[in-house]
Design goal:
The structure holds 3 protein chains of 3 kinds.
Chain A: H1 8-12, H2 16-30, E1 36-38, H3 41-50, H4 58-66, E2 67-69, H5 70-77, E3 90-94, H6 97-102, H7 118-123, E4 130-131, H8 147-150, H9 152-168, E5 173-176, H10 179-191, E6 197-200, H11 201-205
Parallel strand pairs in A: 1-2, 3-4, 3-5, 5-6
Helix pairs in contact in A: 9-10
Chain B: H1 3-12, H2 14-35, H3 41-57, H4 59-72, E1 76-80, H5 83-96, E2 101-104, H6 108-112, H7 115-121, E3 125-128, H8 131-138, H9 155-166, H10 175-192, E4 195-198, E5 202-204, E6 209-214, H11 218-223, E7 228-234, E8 238-239, H12 245-256, E9 264-268, E10 276-282, H13 286-290, H14 306-310, H15 312-315, H16 328-338, H17 344-347, H18 355-359, H19 366-379, H20 385-398, H21 401-417, H22 420-423, H23 444-458
Parallel strand pairs in B: 1-10, 2-3, 2-4, 4-7, 5-8, 7-10
Antiparallel strand pairs in B: 5-6, 6-9
Helix pairs in contact in B: 3-12, 9-10, 16-19
Chain C: H1 9-19, E1 23-26, H2 33-37, E2 47-49, E3 75-79, E4 82-84, E5 89-93, H3 102-105, E6 108-113, E7 118-119, H4 122-128, E8 137-141, E9 146-147, E10 155-156, E11 163-168
Classes of the chains: A alpha/beta, B alpha/beta, C alpha/beta.
Chain lengths: ~210, ~450, ~170
């Protein structure tokens, strides 16, 4: 209950040192558990990839091995095949860069390889949910941590373009696994006063109604 | 001005930004179509990466082997420690032969060394013959992309330039007509040049030969007509054997432009008849980069530009927003090694999305290197005071749970009630084009506790 | 590694040649090339050829003392040594050319290629090349010259040949 942050924002800005204390706190908070589940591939990915900034003691190694994104956890550990949830809407899935190109939870469009997506797989278990196809399937939303304020013009433009892609293809709801991306897209949507709803993937799985 | 400021200026013209973004995305799209046709594409990338790793680990031996073989074939080999030496060597070759006019095909290395202004200052007429390069030469601009130098220009811009300098029709913008104008104009230049300069796509240690890849035929028209051929080469462009070309030629054009191969892949081994071939091998801080364990893989680069085409930031800010000759993702991991202070903003002109790394034909871990450069830049104090302070504050607050919760609850209380002018003003960069997130009523911790209590009560 | 299997090399070559802006004319061994191409280039005033059965036209070999003297050639007809199906590239070693500039300076290029001289990909291609016997220079030519430097509009015919016709026999 003393959790704060994984430490990614500081490290991505070049200040790995400033994130060490936060990362240590993270390990302290979570090393007692068999599995650690997060609802953000970027945070989970950061712990897996970049916690080499800490001394690799048993606790750190354990945390890095046993941390999962919730979609991964449900599919790969609990091996669920059905979900008792209904979401009768046209949904655009925003696959975050971390979920694809760091966590490899789905195939990135750049790679010539078999198509797969754990997030799509699990969303397809939800009754009534219709996944729409995007023009650019996995372009970055533009959040990028402190990028969103240090390069705010590019960041906002990227966000607007992402929203427009979803809109063009009929999305009523935009979902995804990374709260940072969703927060950024929602910021754009609300400023543009558009009707599209933002719902985190886990909320859909949890049976959210609009 | 740094990248962020230049990018903001670029983006002000929303329609033009969309046009630029779409044009480059289209090249990425064409690349995807080609790569999907090659079932062994990912294996090829891996192989190319391994060959380059081998080259870098044995660079000295391969370079010596290359020189030996090239000299045996009658090619003159020159070594340049830096840009200035490169320029001096070339000037000497030209003045020793009374060259007045030199035609030049595309070479990013010569851009890096600022060869053109140096030669011009010393009385040599230099004509860039790649169409895109000729256009920007007439406009006195620098290339904005390493493969598509004029991608930032519209056809009307080109029409205007050609009307002004080549006497074509005013207001013309048809690419076919404009290309025909350039064809006629440049053909004259090829026929009257005293020397021709090319870049080098690949130099082969085993044979002492080298390969130049073009679509327009300008490199060949230059070198097969002029009596002197000068080839400028970065020392990392070497590959071990002739057979390795198979791997690289399958990767290069598909990655760069979505073609299966460039129109011409010219293999030079010996000069023709009494003509001369000179090759200038350039270091210019490459050996320094070689010594950086975290960044040496950036020397694998075969200059395809795929990383630029896929980069969502490059597409929306243009090559001129970057401070180094080579822009975009690859430029951003090469530049800080050359001048950390001058090019610091390049390493932060990225969301670390990783798309560049996935398209790179030689598997350079570009976005990981960007992350690593950021650590160095921050350590050297080259990030802004405000950013450094913000990071220190975050580091402080995020490692102390009670403080973190306090800060969170303040934000949750203030945002819903603060007047709009307080939240959205010049100081709030987020708020320029986005609404701030809606503050939830409870923090996760508060929610979790009350849910637990509720379910405990139910039991 | 990266083998040939049961791929129809001729079809693949033709498909890729078209993709890169080239044209193909299939003939059988008995057909006379000169007759077949008579209609294709009605405007050609002079022609240089190193292909058996196709003569040069209006070229005075004595007047050509230097590569520059080739500047007005309309059509060059050369024999390709072999072709690569995956990208329609054809290998032209300079051992067959009195001047290396010939395939580039001409307005139009015609390459005669035997179907039996097709390989699948560049790996096979490099196994066939003896760079040392190529007489100092060789070039893979895939299609006519082209550029997309003006607003990404593809223009066929930049500085090299305006067209490429491959006569496949």
């Amino acid at each position: 209950m003393n959790q704060t942050c994984c430490g990614q924002p500081m490290a991505n800005s070049g200040c790995e040192n400033e994130s060490k204390a936060t990362a240590s706190l993270f390990v302290e908070n979570f090393n007692d558990f068999d599995y650690i589940v997060g609802a953000a591939p970027s945070c989970v990915g950061f712990v897996k990839e970049h916690y080499d900034i800490l001394d690799q003691n048993q606790e750190v190694i354990h945390v890095r091995e046993k941390i999962y994104d919730i979609t991964e956890f449900l599919l790969d550990v609990l091996k669920i095949e059905t979900i008792d949830a209904k979401f009768p809407y046209k949904v655009g899935l925003h696959q975050s860069c971390h979920s694809l190109r760091e966590m490899r939870m789905g195939q990135s469009s750049e790679i010539n390889g078999p198509a797969f997506s754990k997030q799509k797989q699990i969303l397809n278990m939800v009754e009534g949910l219709e996944l729409i196809e995007l023009d650019r399937t996995d372009e970055c939303c533009g959040f990028g941590g402190t990028f969103c304020v240090t390069e705010d013009a590019v960041s906002a433009k990227m966000g607007k373009d992402r929203v427009a892609d979803h809109e063009r293809n009929g999305a009523e709801v935009i979902t995804g696994g990374d709260i940072s991306c969703l927060m950024h897209l929602e910021g754009v949507i609300r400023r543009q006063q558009k009707d599209i709803k933002i719902v985190h993937l886990v909320e859909i799985l949890n049976g959210k109604t609009l | 001005m740094n990248h962020s400021q230049l990018a903001a200026q670029f983006i002000k013209d929303d329609a033009r930004t969309d046009w630029h973004d779409k044009a480059l995305w289209f090249v990425r799209y064409k690349r995807d179509l080609q790569t999907k046709k090659v079932p062994e594409w990912e294996d090829l990338r891996k192989l190319a990466s391994q060959i380059k790793a081998n080259v870098l680990s044995n660079l000295d031996n391969y370079l010596v082997q290359f020189e030996e073989n090239a000299i045996k074939n009658g090619i003159h080999v020159h070594w340049a420690r830096d840009a200035h030496e490169h320029n001096e060597i070339i000037l000497k070759i030209l003045t020793d032969r009374n060259v007045r006019k030199m035609v030049k095909s595309k070479s990013m290395l010569t851009e890096e060394c600022h060869l053109n202004p140096y030669l011009i200052k010393n009385g040599i007429e230099v004509i860039d013959t790649d169409l895109g390069e000729r256009i920007i030469q007439l406009r006195n601009e620098t290339p904005s992309h390493i493969v598509l130098p004029a991608i930032h220009l519209k056809k009307e811009d080109v029409g205007e330039t050609f009307h002004k300098f080549l006497g074509s029709e005013k207001g013309a913008s048809d690419p076919n007509y404009l290309t025909e104008v350039a064809r006629g104009h440049l053909r004259e230049q090829f026929l009257t040049a005293d020397a021709a300069l090319t870049g080098v796509n690949f130099a082969i240690a085993e044979t002492g030969g080298f390969v130049v890849c073009t679509n327009e035929g300008n490199a060949d028209l230059g070198v097969h007509l002029a009596p002197v051929h000068i080839a400028s080469m970065g020392l990392e462009k070497i590959i071990p054997r002739q057979i390795d070309l198979g791997v690289f030629l399958r990767l290069l054009a598909r990655s760069a432009t979505g073609q299966p191969i460039t129109t011409y892949s010219s293999h030079f081994l010996k000069p023709e008849k009494d003509n001369e071939i000179h090759i200038v091998i350039v270091d210019n801080s490459r050996s320094e980069q070689l010594g950086r364990e975290d960044f040496r893989k950036s020397l694998y680069c075969i200059r395809c530009g795929a990383c630029m085409n896929t980069c969502p930031v490059y597409r929306r800010s243009g090559g001129h927003s970057y401070s180094y000759t080579v822009p975009g993702p690859i430029g951003s991991i090469l530049a800080p090694g050359i001048d950390l202070k001058k090019h610091a903003s390049m390493a932060f002109a990225s969301t670390l999305c990783g798309s560049c790394t996935d398209v790179c034909p030689v598997k350079i871990d570009i976005h990981h290197q960007l992350y690593k450069w950021r650590q160095i830049i921050a350590k050297e104090g080259k990030i802004s005071f405000s950013k450094r302070t913000m990071m220190k504050l975050m580091g402080y607050f995020f490692s102390r749970p009670k403080l973190y919760r306090f800060a969170g609850s303040m934000v949750r209380k203030v945002i819903p009630v603060a007047p709009r002018f307080m939240l959205y003003n010049k100081m709030n960069a987020w708020g320029k084009e986005r609404e701030l997130p809606q503050a939830p009523k409870k923090s996760f911790r508060e929610w979790y506790k009350s849910e637990n209590k509720a379910s405990n009560n139910e039991q | 590694m990266f083998g040939e299997d049961d791929i129809d090399l001729v079809s693949l070559f033709k498909e890729n040649l078209q993709f890169v802006g080239g044209k193909v004319l299939e003939i059988n061994d008995h057909q006379n090339i000169e007759a077949c191409i008579a209609d294709v280039y009605p405007f050609v005033k002079n022609r240089w050829s190193n292909v058996e059965g196709v003569g040069s036209l209006n070229i005075n070999a004595e007047e050509i003392v230097d590569a520059h003297d080739l500047k007005d050639i309309d059509l060059v007809v050369i024999k390709g040594e072999f072709g690569v199906a995956e990208n329609a590239a054809i290998w032209i070693p300079s051992s067959t050319l009195p001047y290396r500039v010939l395939p580039f300076i001409t307005q139009h290029l015609l390459i005669v290629l035997d179907k039996s001289d097709l390989v699948l990909n560049m790996h096979s291609a490099y196994r066939k090349i003896d760079i040392y016997s190529a007489s100092g220079f060789g070039v893979f030519i895939s299609g006519p010259s082209k550029t997309a430097d003006i607003e990404q509009s593809l223009v066929i015919g930049a500085h090299g040949s305006r067209s490429l016709l491959v006569v496949l026999r």
